Amino acid sequence: MRVGPPTGSIAAMAAAPVSPTSSEVPSGTPAATAGAAGPVQVRVLLFSDDVATRDAVRVGVGRRPAKDVEVVGWREVATPAAVVEAVEEGGLDVLVLDGESSPIGGLGLTKQLKNEIFDCPPVLVLTGRPQDGWLAAWSQADLAVPHPLDPVALCRAVAELARRSAVRRG
Fold first, then answer.
1. Which residues are 46's β-sheet partners?
2. Whole-angstrom distance, CA of residue 20 vs CA of residue 67
3. Where do the domains of the chain lie, and which CATH numbers do they carry?
4. What's the rounded Cα separation, in Å, for the pair 31 and 25?
5. d(Cα 110, Cα 126) in Å, to the nearest integer?
6. Which neighbouring-strand residues pair with 74?
7. Residue 44 near residue 75, CB atoms below 8 Å
8. Contact 123, 141 (CB under 8 A)
9. What residue stretches are annotated with the Response regulatory domain (predicted)?
10. pLDDT, tens digit, for every residue of 148-169?
């Protein structure tokens, strides 16, 4: 019988420390040289039909979710059509999608984006509860943070996805 937190799940990834080691980030990439060249700068798309959720995420993440990551812009949207349009326009580094939005939630929208958009930016989904990690995995989300939203978990997740996005752009 296994004791301890699950491994390999999106929830476990979100809870794990996110500082890159030399084996995780190739040298010469923006994330690897962020200390010398300044922080990794990212633009974040934030989708929720609830303005209070959008405010909680923006305030929780802040401008500097990590020492080596800086959010230089937020694009807030409240409809799935606006999400698809924004992602197709490009220029976004991280997507934060609320899985509890209605009538189309962030989980289904993540699945659609990952299957239809070439080189889709990394996606963080906000799930209704910790047990919904399997839904996040099904949707092909890169990471998940459950409600109630924990600012520390949000910062870790956004910073991790920002670093991945920097390597992807690299």
1. 76, 96
2. 12
3. 48-137 (3.40.50)
4. 7
5. 11
6. 44
7. yes
8. yes
9. 43-162
10. 999 999 999 999 999 999 887 7
